[in-house]
């Protein structure tokens, strides 16, 4: 089995990097050894934490388009350390074709609805966001203006785990088989869950808009990215282990049939480890369903 971690990390200008990931041949309980990633010509610091940025959004929300741009800029700027999930949920995410309204798509899903309605997260509108599901300035969810600083805070923390995702897709049946290998790097108290979700990029649809200087009320050909489509193992995942063991690789495998309307080459799997009680995200990784 070859296992590798997602490349981490570089903050700054948007750069195009060739990422070479060090492979590790191991059995089910062999160790993953440092370094976890090697970035060509750039001395990457692989000891810092992965960051999950959840963007709670909706196509009828006029401020959600600029929020999506903020999230995308952060994801690109941190180059493999930040992973965005666009969660379409709430009233602004409901389809509306009444009186000629163009919002016909429905990007909502069971996992997103569960997160949106979780009273701990306090998502009271769109756009709102969470960064590793950790409070920032006393709030667990907050407006896009605070995302940059919240991401920077989490990105400085010690790396908590390493993870590899392997996807096998059968085009004839549209069946996806996903294998996730995880190993903790630090010991923590409590129980931890592995959450595995599927997302889709490059979906064209209508989006209400208030982006200056182009304040067109509706962008009819908006490109939706990082759209949460569903979960492979439930909204809050399944328990990884009751005992935090920093020497063993934990393997989980899932099967999922892609919806006929989804474009497989635009789909990707995001996996993250979260505290089962506090919901704090300790690590995240991502892999495309189809890798060219």
Notable characteristics:
three-stranded mixed beta sheet; 3 helices; mainly beta; Immunoglobulin-like; 11% helix; 292 residues
Write the layout of secondary structure elements.
Blueprint: E1 2-3, E2 19-20, E3 24-25, E4 38-39, E5 51-57, H1 64-77, E6 82-88, H2 110-117, E7 128-131, H3 147-155, E8 161-170, E9 175-184, E10 192-200, E11 203-208, E12 218-224, E13 227-231, E14 238-241, E15 250-257, E16 267-275, E17 281-288
Parallel strand pairs: 5-6
Antiparallel strand pairs: 1-3, 2-4, 5-7, 8-9, 9-15, 10-13, 10-14, 10-16, 11-12, 16-17
Explain what this protein looks like in three dimensions:
The protein is mainly beta and 292 residues long. The chain has a single domain (2-288), classed as Sandwich (Immunoglobulin-like). Helix content is 11%, strand content 35%. The chain has three helices and 17 strands. The protein has helices at residues 64-77, 110-117, 147-155, and strands spanning 2-3, 19-20, 24-25, 38-39, 51-57, 82-88, 128-131, 161-170, 175-184, 192-200, 203-208, 218-224, 227-231, 238-241, 250-257, 267-275, 281-288. Strands 10, 13, 14, 16 and 17 form a five-stranded antiparallel beta sheet that branches. The longest helix is centred in the first third of the chain and has 14 residues, at 64-77. It is globular, with a radius of gyration of 19 Å.
């Amino acid at each position: 089995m070859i296992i590798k971690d997602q490349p981490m990390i570089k903050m700054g200008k948007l750069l195009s990097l060739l990422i070479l990931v060090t492979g590790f041949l191991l059995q089910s309980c062999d160790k993953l050894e440092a370094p976890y990633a090697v970035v060509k010509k750039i001395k990457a610091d692989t000891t810092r934490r992965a960051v999950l940025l959840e963007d709670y959004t909706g196509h009828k929300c006029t401020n959600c388009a600029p929020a999506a741009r903020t999230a995308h800029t952060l994801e690109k700027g941190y180059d493999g350390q930040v992973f965005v999930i666009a969660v379409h949920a709430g009233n602004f995410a409901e389809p509306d074709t009444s009186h000629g309204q163009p919002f016909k798509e429905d990007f909502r899903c069971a996992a997103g609805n569960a997160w949106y309605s979780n009273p701990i997260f306090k998502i009271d509108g769109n756009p709102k966001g969470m960064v590793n599901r950790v409070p920032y300035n006393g709030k667990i969810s907050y407006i896009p203006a605070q995302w940059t600083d919240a991401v920077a805070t989490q990105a400085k923390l010690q790396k908590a785990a390493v993870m590899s995702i392997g996807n096998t897709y059968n085009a004839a049946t549209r069946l996806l088989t996903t294998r996730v290998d995880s190993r903790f790097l630090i010991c923590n108290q409590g129980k931890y869950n592995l959450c595995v979700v599927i997302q889709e990029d490059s979906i064209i649809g209508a989006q209400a808009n208030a982006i200056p200087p182009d304040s067109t009320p509706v962008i009819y050909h908006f490109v939706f990215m990082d759209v949460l489509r569903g979960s492979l193992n439930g909204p809050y995942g399944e328990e990884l282990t009751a005992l935090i063991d920093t020497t063993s690789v934990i393997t989980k495998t899932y099967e999922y049939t892609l919806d006929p309307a989804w474009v497989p080459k635009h789909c990707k799997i995001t996996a993250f480890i979260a505290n089962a009680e506090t919901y704090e995200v300790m690590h995240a990784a991502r892999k495309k369903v189809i890798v060219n």
